[in-house]
């Protein structure tokens, strides 16, 4: 099987390569402007072709909560968002704390042929925050990351032991950094808005304090610690300080923490209930600045779908999380690149080389012999967010109706078309 | 003057709306003075009371306000069993909407629920207290009670509210309404129960009760929920009483005609001294009584006054 991607504007971590005909052979990139017979031609005129995105943080809900999402819908949503590789979070029911479960997920995902699945496994057995899971066996079964994401690891001693053990195995430990007793029952950012709305607040200090603890443990153990979804200025400042100290830590931010604030909760719509919570304008500005300065290593979607009925509960009962795999690129391209706050090159880096570096994976490029995991982006396409068309089961979105520019029109995974859109 | 569709909080009611409501409440108060305390004003209307959180006092006050105007009343009390576990709020409302009420009075332990319900029904919604956020009819009846004693209005007046400000929808709603009407509001309580973010505009904060009461035209004590003690918010009841119990001594620093208020039910000699609660400055009974006429006015305004 030989594929020609015609008239593609090529871009990868090595830079901008101008317009070329890109040839794929089987599941690999063959080269540019080679000519000769092909089985399949994709017209990419006017479009940017670049390595498919990597998301280190998606909740695909399988096993156990398939009413919210499953591998098929979640990986289809990922492909529609331009993602070729997704790390799935392990806080499912049952939790992914068993090597057999990791292997089963990986096998099932491979058969689906959508985005590639790279499962995370839990840090503690049953997500209980008590005993460690079998990291080596989980790694052998295909787990690429160890995390109790969704539930902060309250016990610092357990965190330390996890880091020591993971360090030896070369596994990345990812953290959900919110100090639980400081966070308490907070459902939104603690500040002027939460006080006015009378909703229990979750202070930025809960995040900053826990990031501080986890960075100290990273320094102590030498383990690779990835700080998920940093949401606050205080939290980001702590990360920066520890990075300057040489702590082996990396960090990500999410699309929602870069574009929404706690003011959205004034509508009392639980769609805006996320953990960590949406913060203030000042925090958003600081996170954007941190993206630009290179403090942030990657964008993780924290795609966290729920059923509509769950999000139609009151603000205390409704679960945390929003689905966003399909809009993430267009949202950030529109709001950050479109406003001049960030270069396209840097935005792409946060989806490609950045997450690869976090995981210790090779930087995705368009060089001959590399996997043909590609996204075709139409940067001129301008259309409203229409959740009804989402591949994800969560067909509602905070950005519903908002017109965004710059959409993935095709995603190839291993040379096969995993998504083709308008 | 346009009347808002709902009473979710007093923010979206103008001063004009509120004064009109007080004038209607004056008429309703006269109705309640008659031998036959019933008028046909709301005949043919159905008022549904949705109390997801128990509150007999507020529910009875609303029901009496509805019946005094000849409205039909259907009540839904979700003591846990009626509200199916896991059922969405929207589904619950859709079930209840079979009642075909023209107006729902909603009480819920979580802030924002009346707003959520207002999005999902055509009926008018009256917020009868949502979490720690708002209790607009309580604020309206408190302000109405004050206006009876100080007919020259709110400008230049000072209201002090003392107690668990953090968890109090009464404090939030009163601060909002009284400052809108032109008064100054001082919120007072121990630092653990006094969120600094609530200060601003005509609202100031202090942890010193005597300072709060100083020159005040009304001082309102809030009910202290004893469960606050266990969560590290208060060291002990004795300490709270010593620092924050509203007494005649404290009131000595207030305006000579100052009113003593309390949204009830009271913990005597915890947040307010028994003598003060029963004394000549106390308008606690008037608050309860005015509650019915103000709520009559609210129902009337939303159901008939809007046409
Ligand atoms: Zn998380």
Explain the overall architecture.
Chain A: Pathway: Pyrimidine metabolism; UMP biosynthesis via de novo pathway; (S)-dihydroorotate from bicarbonate: step 3/3. Chain A: It catalyses: (S)-dihydroorotate + H2O = N-carbamoyl-L-aspartate + H(+). The complex is a heterodimer of chains A (422) and B (307). Chain A is of the alpha/beta class. Chain A has helices at residues 71-80, 99-112, 135-141, 156-169, 180-183, 192-197, 204-221, 233-244, 255-259, 281-293, 308-311, 328-337, 344-351, 353-359; strands spanning 2-12, 15-25, 28-32, 40-43, 48-51, 53-58, 83-88, 116-121, 145-147, 172-175, 188-189, 201-202, 225-227, 249-253, 298-299, 374-384, 403-413, 416-420. In chain A, strands 1, 2, 3, 4, 5, 16, 17 and 18 form an eight-stranded mixed β-sheet that branches. The two termini of chain A are 25 Å apart. The relative contact order of chain A is 0.16. Chain B has 307 residues and is of the alpha/beta class. Chain B folds into two domains: 6-135 and 288-304, Rossmann fold (3-Layer(aba) Sandwich); 138-283, Aspartate/ornithine carbamoyltransferase (Rossmann fold). Chain B has helices spanning 15-33, 56-67, 89-96, 113-120, 136-149, 169-180, 209-213, 237-244, 248-251, 274-278, 284-305, and strands at residues 46-51, 72-77, 103-108, 124-130, 158-162, 184-188, 203-206, 218-221, 259-261. In chain B, the strands form two sheets. In chain B, strands 7-6-5-8-9 form a five-stranded parallel β-sheet. In chain B, strands 2-1-3-4 form a four-stranded parallel β-sheet, sandwiched between helices. Chain B starts with 14 loop residues before the first helix and ends with a helix. In chain B, 49% of the residues are buried. The A-B interface holds A 191-192, 194-199, 267-269, 308-310, 312-317 and B 87-91, 108-113, 115-116, 130-134, 169, 172, 195, 197-198. Bound molecules: zinc ion. Zinc ion is lined by residues 149-150, 176, 228-229 of chain A.
